[in-house]
Amino acid sequence: MDHQLLNLDELALRLGRDRREVERLVQRGNLPGRKINDQWQFHPAEVTQWLEQEIRGYSDAELLQLEGAQRSTELDPQLPVTSLLKPDLVQVPLEARTKRSVLESLLEVAGRTWQVWEPSSILKAMLEREAACSTGFENGVAIPHTRTPMPDALGESLIAFGRTFSGIPFGAPKRALSDIYFLVLCRDSRTHLQVLARLGRMIQLPGFLDELRATEDPRATYDIIVAADQKLS
């Protein structure tokens, strides 16, 4: 399904938006699409990449709308992040001092599940994603992932978390340093977008990032993340 072109109605459903609103975005050149036989057609991968950039500026209401439109079968709709993040996938501190070592360390953490079948391929894809545009936010959070889902490299979708005790350059806007990392590895774009939307809502919760930075215990960190996920249910 992720490889099939979407028409305007299908895209509106995927985005959780009114068809007329989506059509205006396309006509203004704000959303990637092309006309084929006088009908708008959209490539899911291009839409996902566009969303990944737009999502940075979304409000909680907009993120909720996007999250609700995905309906991944891999996730508990009430607890999408908790569905993929297990206690042993939390590493605090994460021993890393460079962007590459952060990605390598997070992949090692993810490998504890035995669901990462091709770590070298995933690392290469994540580095290519970061070269195109950093996944770092101004608030010190980074959400590294691949540009497109890699179902052949994964047994199951997963999230791994790590926090470095000092910020490192990760390419975030305004040269902000990063210290909180959610590695998102999903087998399909619906799961990927639903998780990104939920994480976007979580990092907007008052006090959430402060709580993460205040603990050095992996289990306590996991509990903070689960509590935030539950708060949004």
Task: Give a short overview.
The chain is 45% helix and 13% strand.
Structure description:
- The chain is an alpha/beta fold and 233 residues long.
- It folds into two domains: 8-42, no CATH class; 70-231, Mannitol-specific EII, Chain A.
- Helices cover 45% and strands 13% of the residues.
- It is built from ten helices and six strands; from the N terminus they run ααββαααβααβββααα.
- The protein has helices spanning 8-15, 19-27, 44-54, 60-70, 80-84, 99-110, 119-132, 189-202, 208-214, 218-231; strands spanning 34-36, 39-41, 90-91, 141-142, 158-169, 177-185.
- Strands 3-5-6-4 form a four-stranded mixed beta sheet.
- A hairpin with a 7-residue loop joins β5 and β6.
- α1 (8-15) crosses α2.
- The radius of gyration is 17 Å and the shape is globular.
- The two termini are 28 Å apart.
- The model has no long low-confidence stretch (mean pLDDT 94).
